[in-house]
Amino acid sequence: MNFLSIEPWIVIGAICVVPIFYTLYREYHVRKWQHALAQVLDAGISQRELPARIAVGGRELHILSRVYELAELMREAREETMQERSKLEGIMEPLVSGVIVIDRAGKIVLVNAAVQRLLSLNEDDMVGRWHWEAGHHYGLASLVDEAIAYGVVQKREVQLHKPQELTLEAHVTPIKQSNGSIAGAVVLLHDVSEWRRLERMRSDFVANVSHELRTPITALKGFAETLLDGALLDQTTARQFVQIMQDEADRIGRLVEDLLDLSRIEAKQIDLHLAPVEAEWIMQRVVDTFSGHASDAGVALAQEVIGRGPIVALADSDRLRQVLINLVNNALQFTPAGGSITLTAERKGDRIVFAVQDSGVGIPPADAQRVFERFYRVDKTRSRQSGGTGLGLAIVKHLVESHGGHVGVYSEVGQGSRFFFDVASVDADGDEL
């Protein structure tokens, strides 16, 4: 045959048909094993059971066998991952500190229960979200970004204002892979709010004690120098100065005694001798103690038992008297002439509620919650002029709490104040109600 005599269109047709035939042949086999693979996926992965099995034959067998091997490896890897995640969650859950695990992109992948409590968010609100969306705190978000960007541990205290006031110590540690790349970060959040509050209290306490001691000491030094400079020759002036010095020395003595007393009470180093105490008797003793002082100040002082029959409290009589004395003394400082102070006792269930009601200047709402703090004064000038140490109400609070009671105050500016507390009640024979 003379190939040159073959029509050109036949040659062109052959050239076109052969690739088409080959393509169709390959597509048949590809579709065949793809169909088999689809069966594997439909039967297995949709139910998360990767090692599904189907019957195959022909040239696709080798490919599918490799798919099965891959599926088996994926299943084992998934099980190992789930086991490791379960172990990690088991370690994280009991921790007091909050833990957040963040991936390289900045999304949260794992949180523990503590961080959910600290941020008042549940797991669904955090996992899968960008870390800056979940925390809603710029300082914390920037700390995470810096740790991931630079691969260096970051540490800082952050203040949270919503949903609650918290001071958190944040440690952000980058997660480094074996090749040195950053895979994410682990955030540890520790609540140091109470620790910082105690530090502030300690600092305030030292500052207040220093101030309270400096004032009378300065007065003592000043009057002593004046006397030495010649005031001793004037009997009247000298007597006045010596009287002031004695008053300031007494003030220092009261401050030291109150400090020691408060320290012992707070450290629970006092022994309470609980016994039946008749309310009317203990209140009358306090009224008798202040009758002269109240009369000189032009303040009416009285006591009243509310209800029928004797009201008997289970308390340490000396400490109960100290509580009432401190409350009446406080009332006298802020009740002008013509006013009144009334002590009352009333049985409510198995408790006795004592109260000291005055018609004094009252307490602003912002100050009412703080009057039981050490050295806190609503009117600093009036309190110091009356010789108060600023510790009386703090002692009241701790003594009442040591009796298992609660202390509080109701007050309105210009209308007076009512301080109240409760202790256990017993019957006339001393048996608890």
Architecture overview:
This protein is α+β, with helices and mostly antiparallel strands and about 425 residues long. A hairpin with a 3-residue loop joins strand 11 (about 405-410) and strand 12. It is elongated. The protein has helices spanning about 10-45, 60-90, 115-120, 130-135, 140-150, 195-230, 235-265, 280-295, 315-335, 365-370, 380-385, 390-400; strands spanning about 100-105, 110, 155-160, 165-175, 180-190, 275-280, 300-305, 310-315, 340-350, 350-360, 405-410, 415-425. Residues about 1-5 and about 10-25 have low confidence and may be disordered. About 50% of the residues lie in helices and about 20% in strands.
Task: Summarize the helix and strand pattern as letters.
Answer: HHEEHHHEEEHHEHEEHEEHHHEE
The structure class reads: alpha+beta
What quaternary form is this? single chain
The percent of residues in helical segments reads: 40-55%
| Main beta sheet strand tally, sense and closure | 7 strands, mixed
Beta-strand content bin: 15-25%
Unreliable residue runs: 1-6, 8-25
Q: Can you count the beta strands? A: 12
Shape: elongated
Give the overall pLDDT as a whole number: 78
Spatial gap, N to C terminus = 129 Å
Radius of gyration: 41 Å
Total number of helical segments? Answer: 12
